[in-house]
What does this fold into?
Amino acid sequence: MNALIQEELGKILLKEFEVPPGALLTITSVETSSDRDHAVVKVSIYPTDRAAALFETLTRRQSYLQHLLNQTLFMEHVPTIHFRLDTLEEHAAAVEELIDRAVKE
It folds into this structure.
């Protein structure tokens, strides 16, 4: 279920959530509660100096994104999503390295 939510929510974010040029929003993981009522969606935002503003916008649109996810997943009960900012520095460094490589190529 976690992978399905991550994949479908990722598609929704690509279509419905405007990320400013030069910024990157990535779903790093989804963790669904054992009762399947809630799903914590961890997101990473690069560059980190834009993280607070982008994360605030994301959480403001949470209800709308939940609505779209509910329409997309053909399940009797879709877990309620809760966004959390993934602040792991190692992940940010890895993303930065990938971007640097892509720019150089």
